[in-house]
Amino acid sequence: MANGYMGKWADINLTTGSIEIKDVDMAMARKWLGGRGLGVKILYDRLKPGTDPLSPDNILIVLTGPLTGTGAPSSGRFCTVTKSPLTGTVSDSHSGGDYAHALKAAGFDYLVITGKAAKPTMILCEDGKIELKDASKYWGMDVHATETAILADLDPSSVGKDIEKLVRNPIGVASIGPPGENMKRIAAIMNRFYRAAGRGGHGAVMGSKNLKALVARGKQRIPMADEAAFKAAVKKNEDEVMQAGDVTKIGGGLYTLGTALLVNIVNGAGIYPTHNFQMDVFPGAEVTSGEYIKENRLIKNVGCKGCRIMCGRWSKIEKGPYAGTVCEGPEYETTWSWGADCGVDDIDYVLTAHHICNKYGLDAIQAGTACAFAMECYEKGIITKEDTGGIDLTFGNTEAIVQVAEMIGKVEGIGAILGDGEEMSAKKWGKGADKFAMTVKGQSMPAYDGRGAKAHALGYATSNRGACHLRAYMINPEILGAPEQLPRFDPGQKSIDMLIAFQDFVAAMDSSLVCQFVTFSMGSQEFANILAPITGWDITAEEFDSIGARIWNLERMFNYREGFTADNDSLPTRILEEPIPEGPSKGNTVPLAKLKPMYYKTRGWNDDGSVPASIKSKYGL
Q1: Weakest mean pLDDT among 22-36, 223-237, 390-404
Q2: What are the domain boundaries of the chain?
Q3: So what's the pLDDT on residue 43?
Q4: Domain 450-618 adopts which CATH fold?
Q5: Are the beta carbons of 190 and 140 closer than 8 angstroms?
Q6: In the β-sheet with 78-83, what is the strand arrangement from edge to edge?
Q7: 60-63 and 312-316 as β-strands: parallel, antiparallel, unpaired?
Q8: What is the side-by-side strand order in the sheet with 189-191?
Q9: Which of 39, 94, 375, 608 matches a 20 to 30 Å C-alpha distance to 507?
Q10: At residue 535, does pLDDT exceed 90?
Q11: Which residues are 20's β-sheet partners?
Q12: H/E element holding 290?
């Protein structure tokens, strides 16, 4: 019995147009859960090593999990898994919004998409059936225009409604804009207008397949082994666990200030990257912070479908050339990438750049860091106004960030170059530009400088999908002191152990498919307590953690098969060799040569970063 699952998945070949609807293998589901884990397993088994990520042979897998759409805390999420065109690694990218609920309501747990359509196409999943539909009329549209047009075609009652009302439509639409259509490697997959599966360039994979949109609707209910016990477990968790956390409780930090609540905290710790990681204290932090946004730009809170945390912001730009614009955001990461990283302290310009990324379908982190990278290249004389199309790319130039965001979104001029990320831009420009690409495995580092949180930096280096704060959020113990305070400047074995525990736990959580914000208050036992009554499995906290370790090691095996070794578990030269110049974290670099062997030994891996037979046997790989 497929409790917690709809029990069906679809194998879709866009080249031939064939669609096969199959039963979910429940033994496989228990071993990998769903989401990230099941996606990695399918990709590992089916994708030929060395496949070009932008060729028809790459596979795009769209997945929900056993908790998606069930009423479990913050469970309105889906993920896509593919070989990333940005990094060349296995890559999972996650999004909130409402497409996940709609896909399960349509009767499907996941879709496996191969090949390339002869013309622009959309996949419509509806009440147990799937149809490939011509999407030529939407090709060339930005994400907002695409979603509006698709909703109008499928639901005439939506015509004439503004976006604020359209986001409540039960039809789920996940689509790409011009960057995805043009296979730009930082293109995102967007749903509900403002929610992004952003990291890894998955939008480019959709574009390479002539796949404009994924659409779902239906009224099917999720079967549960013991619905009453499941609801009781959810209520107990929300009453006793989530409400105990200052961050996740109703009216708590995320509700009150959104994700940008971290701006002043991280800046105060001296690890808020500024001017492309050249500095780590931003003088303009206060006027780009969650506190400032709440008092001066916030209209109301918004949340993904079924979420009680409501961390999203519905904001209004009050002044300047973009006055009157109402949109969702900004988030912490994009407040940073378009703000401090580019030296910009005007929240209206930051919000505008963020809005442009959502409109065109871009990874707003990677787009902002690409702009900061270009600004340092401009500062160092590697590129000039001839390269920028006349834009003065000086750090702090407010209008420049909007111009660059538009050019990336429209795939024009310097934007067409930056749309492939920093590493490919550096290769095009040469002249030592690669020194200023703040990336790991091709993916840009996010809004925490690991020189002042060194176990967190080790997490960047060892992340299987490139630099990522969400693989293991060591900012919790190193900066926030949760679940306990660990030494951020001199990490030891205890920090290594916690990093690995976080990595494994998050891998399992990403596979049950809930938002990572619940990790501020939920652990493996709480997940087991919720999974058991919905699935009917006698799952324990230990099994949950073991699933996570299995996923992490299989991801490692995928990357190793693709040619990634210990040498790729590295950090930018600046992070390794240039001490932070000022502030509370002054004088620090990352001793990766010391930390990485400790990590490998604790993982049980070989010195070259490969997974030995003993670990494969332990986790059934």
Answers
A1: 223-237
A2: 8-217, 258-437, 450-618
A3: 98
A4: 1.10.599
A5: no
A6: 18-23, 8-13, 110-114, 60-63, 78-83, 90-95
A7: unpaired
A8: 129-134, 121-126, 211-217, 172-175, 189-191, 195-197
A9: 608
A10: yes
A11: 11
A12: helix 290-296
Residue 196: its H or E element: strand 195-197
Cis ω for the linkage preceding 483 (within 30 of 0): yes
The fold for domain 8-217 equals Aldehyde Ferredoxin Oxidoreductase;  A, domain 1 (3.60.9)
pLDDT greater than 90 at residue 300: no
Closest CA to 490 of 453, 458, 537: 453
Cα distances (Å, whole numbers) of residue 523 to 178, 504, 530, 560, 603: 40, 12, 11, 30, 21
Which DSSP category does 47 fall into? S
Average pLDDT over residues 401-422: 98
The DSSP letter of residue 620 is T
pLDDT of residue 327: 87
pLDDT digits (tens, 9 = 90+) for 466-519: 999 999 999 999 999 989 999 999 999 999 999 999 999 999 999 999 888 888
Q: What is the dihedral of CA 381, 385, 387, 393, to 10 degrees?
A: 70
**Percent with pLDDT over 90 in the chain:** 85
Among 280, 277, 273, 275, which Cα is nearest to 379's? Answer: 275
Q: Which two tokens stand for residue 592?
A: 């990766």
Q: Who's near 126: CB < 8 A, 6+ residues apart? A: 106, 216, 217, 218
The tokens describing 568, both together, are: 């790729």
Q: Which tokens is 181 given?
A: 């259509």
| Angle value at C-alpha 58, between 53 and 64, nearest 5 degrees | 110
- Ramachandran bin of 468, using left for φ above 0, alpha for ψ from -120 to 50, beta for the remaining angles: beta
Task: Determine the Cα–Cα distance for residues 415 and 11; give it in Å rounded to an integer.
Answer: 35
Residue 391 has pLDDT above 90, yes or no: yes
Q: Answer yes or no: is pLDDT of 242 > 70.
A: no
As a whole number of angstroms, the distance between CA 247 and CA 253 comes to 4
pLDDT in tens, 324-351: 988 888 899 999 999 999 999 999 999 9
Instruction: Give the model's pLDDT for residue 585.
Output: 98
- Four-way CATH pick for 258-437: 1.10.10.60, 3.40.50.150, 1.10.569.10, 1.10.3720.10: 1.10.569.10
Please state the pTM of the whole predicted model: 0.96
Is residue 405 helix, strand or coil?
helix
> Cβ(570)–Cβ(438) under 8 Å?
no
**What's the average model confidence in pLDDT over 52-61?**
98
Q: Band of the pLDDT at 241, cuts 50, 70, 90?
A: low
Query: CA-CA distance, 515 to 247, in Å (whole number)?
Result: 14
Mean residue pLDDT of the chain comes to 95
C-beta contacts of 311-316 below 8 A and 24+ residues apart: 311/254, 311/255, 311/258, 311/259, 311/517, 312/194, 312/258, 313/258, 313/260, 314/164, 315/351
Q: Identify the band that residue 589 occupies on the pLDDT scale cut at 50, 70 and 90.
A: very high
Q: Which helix (H) or strand (E) holds 501?
A: helix 493-512
493-512 and 541-561 helices, crossing angle to 10°? 90
Q: Does residue 73 have a pLDDT over 90?
A: no
Alpha-carbon distances, residue 48 vs 42, 67, 83, 466, 581 (angstroms): 12, 31, 11, 21, 46
